[in-house]
Input
Amino acid sequence: MRWGLMPAWVKDPRKFSLLINARAETVREKPAFKNAVLRRRCLIPADGYYEWQASEPRKRPYFIHRRDGGPIGLAGVAETWIGPNGEEMDSVAIVTAPASADLAVLHHRVPVTIGPDDFELWLDCRAHDADAVMGLMRGPDEGEFVWHEVSTRVKRVAN
Output
């Protein structure tokens, strides 16, 4: 899937800014996400993610991961855009929520992480409407995640 959601109703993708994040608080109301959260929820497997913090003299990257080292299922919503010539493009956005106090030190928003016990509920779009999964759309609990500074080399595609 392509990073950055392209809603199915977009006529010209060259004139549309891709949507990389969907706010948990408004995902059901925003036209770009409301059908995706009902019918096309997905999980993005990860072992962590990066956040950049502004500091002098430069931004500093941090790797954020589960304290227990376990894998993460990032909550995502997906769409398939079909162009006028029948071409298709699958795209995805990550659902975000307000950060807990400890993670807010790095950024005020965090990806929504779905616990393994809730994978089936999150992914089953046939049996569950968005009401059933709204309680899952929150940031990690305080202390669940930890972080450490990493090299700025993570920003370079060549690396």
Remarks:
- The chain has one domain: 2-48+68-142.
- The chain has a mean pLDDT of 92.
- The beta strands are 2-3, 21-23, 41-46, 49-53, 60-66, 72-82, 88-98, 109-111, 113-114, 145-149.
